[in-house]
Amino acid sequence: MRKVILRWKISSLTGAKELSKILEVAERVEILGHLAVGPGSVTQLAEIKMREGHAIEEISMFESFEVIEQHEEDEDGILVSLLCTHPLAVSAIEMSNIHVQPPYGIDAERGMELRLSGHSKSISRFLSLLRIILPPDKVSVQSLRGKEKNGWSSKLTKRQREVVSHAVKRGYFKTDSEVTLRQLADELGMARSTLGEHLQRAEEEIMKMAVEDLN
User: Fold this and answer.
1) Where are the beta strands (DSSP E) in 108-182?
2) Is 65 exposed, middle or buried (0-12, 13-18, 19+ CB in 10 A)?
């Protein structure tokens, strides 16, 4: 499983004319949730901050967006139900084994951000499609291993986790570190050879996980 955060700069959205045009009337469009998914469309709960002199009704003038209902308004923006038929949003939501995770959206200063999670192969297929139609400027990827944050619980033994954790806290892995294996071994109450073996095996497993994630 993978979790992916995709980011586009404002300058990179010129190829998506409708998305760049919407920023001419709105400062920010943030999708807070998905209310319903239909054939070729998704109804979104969105908070929209309009530019001064522009009204929320202008959003419905765009081909891929229609304001269905306005719920409330405050200084942060206008909360609406928004019908979206934009190919980027619809393809991400309809593609099997991928979950689009709110909040996400587009901002006149920060650009656009989209959050996904799902099977690695499905994520890769979607990224391949994006690189053709609207290449993201930054792709942040991390593995999801059930409820674990990094997979150590299943890949490393309890003793290996203890040894690595202590070595990191003592600064052993820093390039200018003066901490020796002997010092670590004495602090943990074990033989230097035993400590060295635990560290070596732990490092091998950690590197395997890193290579797996990079691939």
Assistant:
1) 111-118, 138-143
2) buried
What CATH class is the domain 152-214? Answer: mainly alpha
pTM over 0.90: no
Decide: 82 and 33 in contact? Cβ < 8 Å: no
How far is Cα 126 from Cα 142, in angstroms, rounded to an integer? 16
Annotated domain spans of the chain: 2-142, 152-214
pLDDT above 50 (res 103): yes
Residues 167 and 179: their CA atoms lie apart, in Å, by 9
Model confidence at 13, pLDDT cuts 50, 70, 90, reads confident
Extract the tokens encoding 122. 């499905």
Distances (CA, A) of 191 to 60, 74, 182, 194, 205: 71, 65, 8, 5, 22
Mean pLDDT along residues 168-184: 88
For the chain, give me the number of helices (H) and strands (E)? 7, 9
102/141: higher pLDDT:
102
pLDDT digits 0-9 by tens, 39-55 = 889 999 999 999 999 99
The pair of structure tokens assigned to 213 is 């994630």
Residue 111: which region, alpha, beta or left (left: phi > 0; alpha: psi -120 to 50)? left
